[in-house]
Amino acid sequence: MISCPFCLMLNDQDLDFSVLLRKLYNVSDAETEIDPADLHQLRLTLIAPGTKWCGPGNDASDYDDLGTEVETDKCCRQHDYCTDIIPAGETKYNLTNESFFTRLHCSCDDTFRQCLQSANTSTSNKIGIIYFNAIGTKCYKKYYPVTGCKTRGGWFNSKCIEYIYDEDGDMLYQWFDVLNY
Fold this sequence. Notes:
Pfam families: Phospholip_A2_2
Oligomer: single chain
Largest sheet: 2 strands, antiparallel
EC number: 3.1.1.4
CATH architecture of one domain: Up-down Bundle
Structural class: alpha+beta
CATH superfamily of one domain: Phospholipase A2 domain
Keywords: Calcium, Disulfide bond, Hydrolase, Lipid degradation, Lipid metabolism, Metal-binding, Secreted
Main location: secreted
Strand order of the largest sheet: 1-4
Number of strands: 8
Distance between the termini: 29 Å
CATH topology of one domain: Phospholipase A2
Order of helices and strands: HHHEEEEHHEEEE
CATH class of one domain: Mainly Alpha
Radius of gyration: 17 Å
Organism: Parnassius mnemosyne
């Protein structure tokens, strides 16, 4: 079994596990071939313990099926049902998602962060730290054109936490670093 705690929150129904394994473990294409029969089981193993919605896809039998970590699972389910998304490799609002997992509108990620913080359990906090701090994902929204980064933060100062905008410019859709948890 693959141990990949960072993978718990890759929120993409169409995640290519071969790409993920090559990136994480520096292995060849031949070593990452996954039998289609095993793919479903592999997806289930990446669901966070105690949840049915926190991971790529879900393990729920229906919308109301939640794991033992009920409040955390509700947050993940709501995040999974975000309607404004850009799947991996697709373009929307003149933005192309070059990541290997789905990116969401910033309002969905903001709601997800607030929900996990309100749940305030060990599981919700771990998921929040993984998704918002460790993975370093981005979200998108329509705002004034970004002209620079005023303040950097996060791990290795890799995130922009305060942007500089051209407030005279026309608003447009852009990528933004998600806030830390």
